[in-house]
Amino acid sequence: MFNNNRGRDGAPTPVGTSSGGGKRIFSVLGADVRVVGNVSATADLHLDGTIEGDLACASLVQGAEGRVIGNVRAENARLAGTVEGSVSARTLTIERSARIAGDVEYESIEMETGARIDGRLRHADASPAPSPTPALVEVLPPVIESR
Exposed, middle or buried, 66 (CB in 10 Å: 0-12/13-18/19+)? Predict the structure, then answer.
């Protein structure tokens, strides 16, 4: 009656946006939600609540009230809240209200004035650098002098 997002069996249907005929799943953890433990999602995630554990997802949008006490790993991340742990993202946007206490690894970064990072920034190359080829060294037998 009140929820039109249910399938024929009464189970909630994933909310998403259509892109090229397929559905894109988008999950929301509201401000009243507190998760204790690691969170792993193949879907995009919007976080306004608290996660006490590591977070791994495809794409993360963190609201200003969102909080992660653990490490964050995502392909794309837009952070506006608090992270107490390391952050690793291919594309990273850090908004002015964001506070990160940990190291940050990124391929592409955008940071607004006022954002705060207490940790190291590290650029991650998209492809690993080729290892240098070792130089060949010729080893000669020792010279023995005769008297």
Answer: buried
